[in-house]
């Protein structure tokens, strides 16, 4: 549904250039909820704004629903009309809602339809239908100031859907909301994705958002996408930072002559008794050091850190057994995990994906 190739954006800031996007190749499949995560300044906002050409990329291409937007050249009248038409298939939701305070809720939702020159009756019909869809049928005549944050975002979502978009872009849509309201907005986005077959790209700095509704995710750093794929693919990728952030498992070994193994379960492997099979088959004592089980995009996924007696060389066969079961198995470096040794040689800390402050 969305493909970018070599997407690059360089801003001129005073007398220096800032490369906000540095050759981004993104692939978003039709009907998926795709999360882009990264720290403040990683280039997430720039990426999402380039997807509907709110921001003109310096180079590279953007193709949405088969149409290459970046080939609609220039800023003339004709290019403007073409771009408006293409953009009507792409809705956008903003962190601070961007509602017009002087207009009623219904008139805010009708705004994109006015721009598309839809007649008044049809505009009104469509706006009321969308307000019903987002659960605000009774607020049509209210003004934004009379609404809660969550209700304002519902209006923002209804407005974004006015042009019957195939794609919805969400720029930190929940980061101004409290946790409960965040959950209700994420549920609404998930329902819209399923009911309307809407493809959703959302940018966020919260791993919980990815965990709650995303089928796929990309991690951005310094203007580049450093990891991307379905959540299951990421979990199956050795050393994936996103997988580690999604399912952090801690736990230190009881001594340094132990083997520590991180196991990722998904699909049918999540429900098989592999640990007890391992213990029985190899008559080995297994300690569970840490574990996290969760449901991601409706699928059960989990990670577990176990400890086996003896060093790695003594555990090659049991580890091979786990791999044969189709599990993702990563052998941890015990020297990094034992506190005394780790203090002498500090492991690089995984930077928390937190916003460092509002822009
Ligand atoms: N209009 C602009 N002019 C100059 N530099 C800009 C502009 N917009 C963004 N940048 C720079 O581009 C880089 C990427 O910014 P961007 O807003 O895309 O990051 P982000 O990941 O969305 O961050 P945040 O989570 O804080 O919103 C940053 O270094 C930023 O300072």
Automatic annotation (TrEMBL):
Residues crossing the lipid bilayer are none
| Stored Pfam families | ABC_tran, NIL
Annotated ABC transporter domain ranges read 2-247
Record keywords, A-Z: Amino-acid transport, ATP-binding, Cell membrane, Membrane, Nucleotide-binding, Translocase, Transport
Please give the Gene Ontology molecular function terms for this protein.
ATP binding
What protein does this entry describe?
A: ATP-binding cassette domain-containing protein
Instruction: Please name the source species.
Output: Streptomyces bugieae
């Amino acid at each position: 549904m969305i493909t970018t190739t070599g997407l690059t954006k360089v801003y001129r800031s005073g007398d220096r250039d800032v490369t906000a996007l540095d050759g981004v190749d993104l692939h978003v499949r039709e009907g998926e909820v795709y999360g882009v995560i990264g720290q403040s300044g990683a280039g997430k906002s720039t990426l999402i704004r380039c997807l509907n050409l709110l921001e003109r990329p310096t180079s590279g291409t953007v193709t949405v629903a088969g149409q290459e937007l970046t080939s609609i050249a220039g800023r003339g009248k004709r290019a403007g009309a073409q771009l408006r038409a293409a953009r009507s298939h792409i809705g956008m939701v903003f962190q601070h809602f961007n509602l017009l305070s002087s207009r009623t809720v219904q008139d805010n939702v009708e705004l994109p339809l006015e721009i598309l020159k839809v007649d008044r009756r049809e505009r009104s019909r469509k706006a009321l239908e969308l307000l019903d869809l987002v659960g605000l049928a009774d607020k049509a005549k209210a003004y934004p100031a009379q609404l809660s944050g969550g209700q304002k975002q519902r209006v923002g979502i209804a407005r974004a859907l006015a042009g019957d978009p195939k794609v919805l872009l969400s720029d930190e849509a929940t980061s101004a909301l409290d946790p409960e309201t965040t959950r209700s907005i994420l549920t609404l986005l998930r329902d819209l994705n399923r009911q309307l077959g809407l493809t959703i790209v959302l940018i966020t700095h919260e791993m919980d958002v990815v965990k709650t509704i995303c089928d796929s995710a990309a991690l951005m750093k310094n203007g580049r996408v450093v990891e991307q794929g379905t959540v299951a693919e990421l979990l199956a990728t050795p050393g994936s930072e996103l997988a580690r952030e999604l399912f952090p498992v801690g736990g230190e070994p009881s001594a340094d002559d132990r083997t520590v193994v991180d196991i990722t379960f998904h699909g049918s492997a999540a429900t098989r008794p592999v640990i007890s099979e391992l213990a029985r088959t190899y008559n080995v004592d297994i300690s569970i050091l840490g574990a996290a089980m969760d449901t991601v995009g409706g699928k059960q996924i989990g990670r577990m850190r176990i400890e086996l007696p003896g060093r790695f060389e003594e555990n090659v066969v049991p580890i091979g057994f786990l791999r044969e079961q189709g599990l993702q198995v990563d052998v941890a470096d015990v020297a990094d995990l034992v506190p005394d040794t780790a203090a002498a040689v500090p492991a690089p800390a995984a930077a928390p994906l937190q916003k460092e402050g509002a822009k």
